[in-house]
Specification:
With 231 residues, the chain is an alpha/beta fold. It has two domains: 127 residues, 2-Layer Sandwich (Ribulose 1,5 Bisphosphate Carboxylase/Oxygenase); 84 residues, Ribosomal protein L1/L10, domain II (Rossmann fold), CATH 3.40.50.790. 32% of the residues lie in helices and 22% in strands. The protein contains nine helices and ten strands. A five-stranded mixed β-sheet has the order 1-10-9-2-8, covered by helices on one side. A hairpin with a 5-residue loop joins strand 9 and strand 10. Helix 2 packs across helix 8 and helix 3 packs parallel to helix 7.
């Protein structure tokens, strides 16, 4: 069984309260981040869903108030005027059959893919390649659309996606330890409110059941969902 190091155990021993106010939790996440690199600040959310039911899958996206991380490389499958829109919005790679052939050959040098609906029939051959990596354009996420300019523009502004795992958890990153407390609070609030708006119609009872914050290497600190949702 893996054991945590002395710094982790020391931090854990100082986290006494079971549920912390949001500001206090973030301050402690920053305080007890002991790695030599700028750790991410992560949030794990336990949802009141049956993750085995397809109609209760939770997925969505959010543009956080405070952007962070590397510039997203956006690929767009489009032709004609829609390809022109993608270029104006700042897409990194634009094409159709040429890109499909390139990806089919093993090239994967991009972070997000967008496609116009008329090309999805051709892109289907890439499903087994792009699907497992979360790179297949998806109508529910808004990445299959003719409104190419708006989607690419949002992605370049930092739109981030989320989806529950098999156990009904959603894992998300809201920033870096080097961020100020207020910026992390704003990003956490933006994410939780976007997640809450993604509640499936068939999910019953309390949707957001538990929220835990931590740095990449740090201890988990629980916060109240109600405090965030009413703020």
């Amino acid at each position: 069984m893996a054991t945590h190091g002395k710094k982790y155990q020391a931090a854990q021993s100082q986290i006494k309260q079971q549920v912390h106010p949001v500001k206090s939790a973030i301050e402690n996440v920053k305080k007890f981040a002991f790695a030599k690199f700028d750790e991410s600040v992560d949030v794990n959310v336990n949802l009141g869903i049956d993750a085995s039911k397809g109609e209760q899958v939770v997925r969505g996206s959010v543009i956080l108030p405070n952007k962070f991380g590397k510039e997203v490389r956006v690929l767009v499958f489009a032709k004609g005027e829609h390809a022109d829109q993608a270029k104006k919005a700042g897409a990194d790679y634009i094409g159709a059959d040429d890109l499909i052939e390139k990806i089919d050959g093993g090239w994967m040098d991009f972070d997000v893919a967008v496609a116009t609906p008329d090309l999805m029939g051709k892109i289907g051959k890439l499903a087994k390649t792009l699907g497992p990596k979360g790179l297949l354009p998806n109508k529910k996420l808004g990445t299959v659309t003719f409104d190419v300019f708006a989607v690419v523009d949002d992605l370049k502004k930092g739109r981030r996606f989320f989806k529950n795992d098999k156990s009904g958890l959603v894992h998300f990153t809201i920033g870096k330890v080097s961020f100020g407390v207020e910026k992390l609070m704003e990003n956490l609030s933006g994410f939780i409110k976007a997640l809450n708006s993604s509640k499936p119609a068939t999910a019953k009872g309390k949707f957001i059941q538990k929220i835990t914050l931590s740095s990449t290497m740090g201890v988990g600190i629980q916060v109240s969902p109600d405090e965030i949702l009413i703020s």
